[in-house]
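Hypothesis: this fold can be encoded by more than one sequence.
Test: take the structure tokens below, design a sequence, compare later.
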């Protein structure tokens, strides 16, 4: 029987750093740092997942495992992806890290003929961390395996891929989000409770579910990217 494992991951990322979400920006800003529902700065688990997959693609011998670990996109005419075995949590900033709130970086393209800014070329980005600041982010990758040795092999492969990553976040072409260091630790999670006391002939029983992440109940809206959870 498979058992749950958690790979605790710590990333040291050199500022400046920006990973933007899909929410509305503040007045005067074109790009904001992604935030959780409680307002905390986060590196999305989906972003780390994509970066890690690309890193492992560059390394020999991982091609056959990528689809099983990370999943495959939906086929033509389908909105049901083939999900992977790895579950990526969001990465949160260590609380003692120094930040530089309410600061922004402005980029502008100048028209050489007029000497003024080009139309639609003034871009303001939120800067939560000053240039050169070292930020520490912690998150986890969860999966199930039959034996500890098998889980340890997966941990080693993921650790190698994480160390192969060079940058995190957006605007990497001008030096944002340089990954300085990676640390991982594999932990065996507590076994899930087993069923007991259910005998044959029982038609119903009480079920209680405890969630460790957000829950979304709803269908895919084809005409827009906005999804709203159903009321149950």
């Amino acid at each position: 029987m498979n058992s749950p494992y958690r790979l605790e991951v710590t990333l040291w990322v050199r500022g400046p750093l920006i990973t933007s979400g899909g929410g509305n920006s503040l007045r005067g800003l074109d790009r904001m740092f992604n935030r959780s529902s409680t307002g905390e700065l986060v590196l999305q688990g989906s972003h780390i997942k994509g970066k890690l997959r690309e890193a492992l693609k560059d390394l020999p011998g991982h091609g056959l495992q990528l689809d099983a670990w990370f999943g495959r996109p939906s086929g033509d005419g389908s909105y049901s992806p083939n999900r992977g075995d790895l579950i990526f949590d969001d990465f949160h900033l260590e609380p003692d890290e120094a930040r530089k709130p309410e600061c922004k970086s402005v980029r502008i393209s100048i028209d050489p003929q007029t000497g003024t800014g080009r139309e639609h070329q003034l871009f303001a980005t939120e800067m939560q961390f000053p240039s050169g600041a070292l930020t520490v982010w912690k998150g986890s990758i969860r999966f199930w395996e039959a034996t500890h040795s098998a889980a340890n092999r997966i941990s080693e492969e993921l650790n190698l891929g994480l160390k192969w990553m060079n940058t995190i976040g957006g605007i990497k072409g001008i030096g944002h989000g340089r990954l300085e260091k990676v640390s991982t630790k594999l932990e065996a999670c507590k076994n899930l409770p087993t069923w007991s006391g259910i005998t044959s002939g029982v038609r119903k029983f009480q079920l209680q579910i405890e969630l460790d992440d957000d829950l979304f109940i709803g269908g895919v809206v084809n005409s827009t990217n906005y999804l709203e959870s159903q009321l149950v």
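The mean pLDDT is 80. The helical segments are 45-58, 63-70, 148-164.
Hypothesis status: open.
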